[in-house]
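ok here's the first one, seq then struct tokens
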Amino acid sequence: MIRVLVAAPIHKDALKLLESSGFEVIVKEYPSNNELVKLIKGFDALIVRSKPLVTRDVIEAANKLKVIGRAGVGLDNIDLEAAKEKGIAVFNAPGAPTNSVAELAIGLMLAVLRKIAYADRNMREGKWVKKECLGQELHGKILGVIGMGRIGRAVARIAHHGFGMRIIYYDIIRCPREIEEELKAQFLDLETVLSEADVITIHVPLTPQTKHLINEERLKLMKPTAILINTSRGGVIDTNALVKALKKGWMAGAGLDVFEEEPLPSNHPLTKLDNVVLTPHIGANTIEAQERAGIEIAKKIIGFFKGK
């Protein structure tokens, strides 16, 4: 019997799908690295989300592992080189969280520009901060999209069609002409996007090439009235440089769902800033996205073992 270790919470329908296909499913949510090294022996398949880390130690300890499934988009928590060396297939569910992450990005834009979190905090303390909450509209602003893949395009569609925003973007690959025409999107270099946009939203994977893509030098290019949104990976932004930029007023604010260190420590400098909205990596954390991701990865694993 094919044995599947589910090392992160996935939708119940995905578990049922695996079981109904004749697989033995064992659930052990978020084991530590040492625990996973011990657990992985005897399993043919492993399912994770953004956690736990699937390190080389885990992969080398696996004696039967044939496939790793990531119920989500990124693969940066999996040692892909080690998996390749052992001939282990790696799958993800890239389309599942698109709508959820895109909607959160828009939500963070509104929260930062309209100072929603700041107003809420003060209201709970009995403070009426109406004057301090003078905000900005999204309507008619310039949206700079860094990474125009599935999620970047979804954000651009909401922003353009819903808020009348002008779209400029940077990516290593230019979008097809029909996408640019639909969104009236302009392809520019990274520095120009950073300097011209009123709102910058990041949607790139974390790779050696994108590590600290947004650094101090590039943050200095932003308008002092502009805001930065990150729902991709924390490591894309140099956190120390971002804190400096926010404190010195190089930019107006930021909305962050991802961080270089997760969970974010309670005493982190970002938690002390009123011009930042912070959420705990919840971009794909919706009922709909989790159902799609779980079922998509379950189907891929079933298809792998059944030769489809």
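and now the second one, same deal
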Amino acid sequence: AKNLEDFITKATTSHGYYIGRYEAGDATATNSARTSSTIDTNPIVCKTGVYPYNWITQPQASSLCQNMYSSENFQSDLINSYAWDTAIVYIQEMGHDNYANYGRDETENSSLMDTGKTGDVVCNIYDMAANTREWTTEYSADTGSSTAYPCVYRGGGYDSSGYFAASRDNDLATRSSNYISLRLSLYVK
């Protein structure tokens, strides 16, 4: 993250933040799947009906998000753990009591779909519990196993019924996959 403590302070002071309504999409991958050989500098978009920006490493996702907007008034970043968790709390407080445990099984989404098309929409936020898992700025301090990797992704995915909106898992910074994408956050400077 650019600065998690600064994000929390500014989000509290300005009474909120914005997270991408949709997982990030690839602005240039029209009607075709991205692959591990796809250029990872394609522009990202936050809109429905585009192919998810998958096959991207955590550092690449972070860089794309941090450079998406340039303004004197606000800044963009890859979503952080505070924004992800408070979004889930908000969704649950708005009447979706069990959204933290909502996943692919509720949407019956068993294949990768364009952004916003899984049926997973609550409080006008799409695909946190289904489609792709999403890189965050969170750092994993789990060092007690052979699979202890520093970068964290969150959410549910089309490829496994074992992941939910509140799920977190960790992997290598260099990991890229068809089931991992990203989500943008935006906040007042």
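notes on #2: The longest strand covers residues 133-139. DSSP finds four helices and eleven strands in the chain.
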